[in-house]
Amino acid sequence: MRVPRWLPVFTGIMITLVFTAAGEQNPGQQSRRPSPEGQEQKRPDTEEHPHDHGHFTHEDPHAWHLGVGLAAVRISGEAGLTPGYHLHLIRQLGQQHRWGAGLGWEMIPGDHAHHGLNLLLSSRIFHFLTLTAGPGVAISRHEGNRELLPALHTEAQLEFNLRGIHIGPMAGFGFDRVESHFSVGLHIGLGF
User: Fold this and answer.
1) For the residues of 15-40, what is the DSSP string, one character each?
2) Among 167, 158, 97, residue whose Cα is nearest residue 131
3) Model pTM?
4) 3-class SS of residue 180
5) Cβ count within 10 A of residue 167
6) Domain limits at 87?
7) 23 phi/psi in degrees, rounded to 5
8) Is 72 among the domain residues?
9) Which pairs with CB-CB distance under 8 Å and at least 24 residues apart come from 17-20?
10) Residue 71 to residue 57: CA distance in whole angstroms
11) Which parts of the chain fold into alpha helices (H)?
12) Residue 20 covered by a domain
């Protein structure tokens, strides 16, 4: 199995970003300061606010994110769509859990069954948009032979936190040496 030249560089950059984000200071730790009389006072710029107004929220206090997805998948060189399933477990890191690292698994059934296992890095660009990408291995069958190929998986998720359930549309793209695929579907996640 030949590893693409760009894969180690990409992986190194993403790991550096995750560890940099993990070292960020949590602003909640500095939300109080002693007053001249020895009593703690809240700083006005870090006023605590629960962000729960009875509808969608964007705060996620959980350290872990477990996500599942169901998508319609278009495989390069093939006609029509096929279902695709995906599962990921992400350890959320950094200030306000804007970064994360974890594992992802993807399955595309059919004539050319495809399974993917990836090391994933994620970044919450906005409170509702998460981008996830990572290198991995694609396990597939082509012409009766099982193949193990280096691969890359990327995904964008629009997530809305509805009473503890992260739900929203997703779009993904993955490729290996043999084929590529594009998927659009629904992402559902839980924090714990």
Assistant:
1) HHHHHHHHTSPPGGGGSEEE-TTS-E
2) 158
3) 0.66
4) strand
5) 16
6) 62-192
7) -85, -5
8) yes
9) 17/99, 17/121, 17/123, 18/93, 18/99, 18/100, 18/101, 18/121
10) 25
11) 6-22
12) no
For the stretch 133-185, pLDDT in tens is 999 999 987 777 888 999 999 999 998 888 878 899 999 999 888 889 999 99
Q: C-alpha angle 161/163/167, rounded to 5°?
A: 40
40 domain residue, yes or no: no
Tokens of 163: 């009473």
| Rounded Cα distance, 135 and 119, in Å | 6
Domain count, the chain: 1
For the stretch 94-136, pLDDT in tens is 767 778 999 999 999 877 678 999 999 998 888 888 999 999 9
- b/e burial code for range 54-66 (CB count within 10 A of at least 16 → b): eebbeebeeeebb
CATH number reported for the structural domain that contains residue 135 in this entry: 2.40.160.20
**Does 22 map to a domain?**
no
Give the C-alpha separation, 159 to 67, whole Å. 11
